[in-house]
Design a protein that fits this description.
about 280 residues, mainly alpha, 10 helices, about 0% strand, globular
């Protein structure tokens, strides 16, 4: 139980810092992913519009409270589930599994579990991130968005896009943890004292974020479109993206996503490792 308490504390700190770093980039990503009326000609055009018309807090950080809370839950579920699953697989009865297999399985299980937490959080986030584009009064809030969603389509509507989120997170969890753990392991081998350094966490985390987003971005694009429009299904979203922008439409916003993925995920893993190291010393 002490280990779990440490994991919860470290994951909460990592989630908060990571979300503060990535959220402005994420806002631009969602707007580009759902920009099927070609309101924005480029990533820079979207950034300029957001800053000029909405500012920092009401534009780039619009709706941050929901994903901030979600980031704490997300990282708690991710790291605790990953850690406990890995420990289970690492028992003698499962010793025939390679270390990489344990990491991939544990990451997939962790991602699967966290998808059920992320779906409603990201649905509210996505709606708020594009709300200013259709409502100049700018009176949308997290609670109002949740309330309107439930009133219009019931509680289950908060989990619209669950299938896309599940696919993204279950596969992404394996990629995320796998990239991080393998990178740290290889860097440790290269160290003359065979030790992991603080910068190993930063580099491993940055690479993990880039690999996760690069491999699963098309799924994330479909999820974003499905979540901002209650009347559209996954198959309809895919057809809409292809019809309006072709295959390239699945990758709109990829550039800025990869730009934020490295520092945000580096911050997450670095913070987690440093807090865990500090707590275990106490």
């Amino acid at each position: 139980m002490e280990d779990v308490a440490y994991e919860l504390t470290a994951s909460a700190a990592a989630g908060i810092l990571g979300k503060l770093v990535e959220f402005p980039f994420d806002t631009i990503k969602v707007r580009l992913q759902t920009n099927h009326n070609n309101m924005f000609k480029s990533t820079f055009d979207c950034i300029k519009y957001t800053y000029t018309n909405e500012g920092i807090t009401k534009g780039f950080y619009k709706g941050v409270s929901s994903p901030m809370f979600g980031a704490i839950l997300e990282n708690a579920v991710l790291f605790v589930t990953y850690g406990q699953t890995y420990k289970y697989l690492d028992t003698k009865s499962n010793s025939n599994l390679s270390d990489l297999s344990k990491i991939i399985i544990s990451g997939g299980v962790a991602g699967s579990f966290v998808s059920f937490v992320l779906t409603p959080v990201e649905l509210v986030k996505c709606k708020l991130q594009v709300a200013n584009l259709t409502d100049a009064k700018n009176n949308h809030t997290v609670m109002k968005t949740i309330s309107n969603t439930i009133k219009q389509n019931g509680v289950k509507a908060l989990w619209k896009g669950q299938s896309s989120t599940f696919i993204r997170e279950s596969l992404g969890g394996s990629v995320w943890f796998g990239t991080y753990e393998v990178t740290k392991k290889e860097l440790k081998k290269l160290d003359k004292n065979n030790e992991n350094k603080q910068w190993h966490s930063l580099l491993g985390g940055g690479l993990a974020g880039v690999m996760f987003n690069f491999t699963l971005f098309p799924v994330d694009t479909v999820k974003s479109l499905v979540q901002i429009d209650h009347h559209i299904t996954v198959s309809q979203a895919v057809k809409t993206i292809i019809a309006k922008n072709g295959i390239a439409g699945f990758y709109k916003g990829l550039g800025i996503t990869l730009t934020k993925a490295a520092p945000a995920n580096a911050a997450i893993f670095y913070t987690y490792d440093m807090v865990m190291a500090f707590l275990k010393k106490e």
